[in-house]
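Subject: sequence -> structure tokens, single chain

Hey, anyone have a minute? Need the predicted structure for the following. Not urgent.
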Amino acid sequence: MKSLHGRRIATVTVGVAIALGVVTSPAQAASWSGSLSNAGPGYESRRWYDSGGATTIKFTGCSDNGSNRVVNVLLRKDTVGPDPSYVNASFTKCFESSSSTSTGSWVDHGSGNYYFAVNVGASSLNVWVKSLTVSY
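Reply:
Had a minute. Here:
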């Protein structure tokens, strides 16, 4: 009889913990959203702090001031010296329609402040993006 009573207490304790939200769930990634309007070559986004993990950037509804129909997105880490650059992603799908989305993903580069730059090194291409989301 003693073991049955112990099981009841354990079952009640677990049920109460779940009801109160005491059981932890997996950590959720942070994100921010925005848009771009007439962003020129080398435009730098706002900075965000990433404590580590992958980064995903999504652009929806892109247009430019020419017929290039591509926007290059470069993830960078804000440092005291020259900022390291990571893989340059070429976004083209977002130019198909106002609801089409291009997505770029970057692996973990450690904790720190990050930003993205668009069309680094381009001569005169400006870009508009209806909506963008950065998840990290």
